[in-house]
Write a structure and sequence with these properties.
mainly alpha, three-stranded mixed β-sheet, 8 strands, disordered N terminus
Length: 357
């Protein structure tokens, strides 16, 4: 027992806690925020995450007895040494979902950092360790939770203006968001910065792009992600809001490469487009870009030339028609939307008329 206890450091290893949090994100291939903490146990065969209510029913205990067993009203990391199994228990009667998520992340920190094994405790508590040892474990677990749920690199990139935005972004309690917000800004004041080469930027790059540049058109319900867009690429209107709408609609288009060139001819389905701007089978222009241009003496003197997505009917920079829409390769947004709604209405009517066996 004494040998095990001497392994506990007298100072928190924040670097180790941070790296453990990032490792957990990486091995679970987490790419979206908020992090789905309950799913993070799926990677480990010896770990389960269960609620106090589940445990109370399984052990025929009251909720108060579970809290007493866990030495906590919030949660615990229970280690069964004989089988090398872990169960993270959390109090599902807590009304604040963000607080529950932080509790689970905190207990995951104990699991990843092997605090139970280091202390030789199945469920360690404040009265089972020295004050110094207990604080080391708690500070490391809190550091782990902070880096798992609100990676500082992402906070640095998105720069939420206040704790309310941070709380919504990472789905943590306002109290936790305030602490993260203060901690982060204190770090900035001390000159802390974060390299774009860090792998955390890479795994969350899609989320970052959508958060910073995702827009919904309130006219046609199109959701798209384009930097510096002023107009909707589907209907050409400038009625854009910076978020993903609840009733977003996906409009048809064509698969294109990084140069907005169709991979298959949108008119004749010719697959041998090579690198030309026109299909050699039917002659259609196969690059979707802004068709806004000025002519003088049969020569183009100016053109917008903004490259567009495969479903863009209009230019996101100037609102002019796209080459695909101008060539009638894409249907008008309202025609497509109306046809989609009619199909959905027909399907609902058919389903409603079905007689169950």
């Amino acid at each position: 027992m004494t040998m095990m206890m001497t392994m506990i450091s007298k100072t928190p290893n924040f670097r180790k806690a941070e790296q453990a949090a990032f490792q957990l994100l990486k091995i679970n291939n987490v790419q979206e925020l908020p992090v789905k903490v309950k799913k993070l146990s799926n990677h480990f065969s010896n770990l389960r995450i269960k609620s106090y209510s589940w445990f109370a029913k399984k052990r025929n205990m009251t909720l108060e007895e579970v809290c007493e067993f866990a030495n906590s009203d919030e949660g615990c990391c229970w280690y069964k040494k004989s089988t090398n199994k872990y169960v993270i228990l959390y109090n599902d009667t807590v009304e604040n979902v963000g607080r529950i998520r932080w509790t689970i992340a905190h207990e995951l920190g104990h699991f990843m950092l092997k605090h139970n094994e280091m202390s030789n405790k199945s469920v360690y508590a404040r009265n089972s360790l020295t004050q110094e040892e207990y604080e080391v474990f708690e500070k490391e677990a809190n550091c782990f939770a902070r880096n798992l749920l609100a990676p500082p690199q992402i906070v640095y990139e998105l720069r939420p203006e206040n704790p309310h935005i941070l709380s919504d972004l990472f789905n943590i309690s306002f109290e936790a968001a305030t602490n993260v917000f203060i901690f982060f800004n204190n770090g900035l004041e001390r000159g802390i910065s974060y390299s774009k080469n860090h792998f955390i930027f890479e795994i969350f790059k899609g989320f970052i792009l959508r958060y910073k540049h995702g827009k919904t058109c309130t006219n046609c319900s199109n959701y798209f992600v384009t930097k510096h867009a002023l107009f909707c690429p589907i209907c050409g209107q400038d009625r854009l809001i910076k978020r993903e709408g609840d009733d977003k609609m996906i409009y048809s288009g064509y698969d294109i490469d990084e140069n907005s060139r169709a991979k298959i001819c949108p008119k004749c389905d010719n697959e041998q487009l090579e690198n030309g701007d026109y299909c050699k089978a039917c002659g259609v222009y196969v690059i979707n870009k802004c068709a806004n241009r000025e002519w003088y003496n049969n020569e183009i003197t100016w053109e917008c030339g903004t490259l567009l997505d495969g479903n863009a009917r209009f230019c996101t920079a100037c609102g002019h028609q796209s080459t695909f829409f101008q060539s009638r390769l894409l249907a008008s947004w309202d025609v497509e939307k109306r046809a989609r709604e009619e199909e959905e209405e027909l399907y609902r009517n058919i389903v409603g008329q079905e007689v169950p066996f």
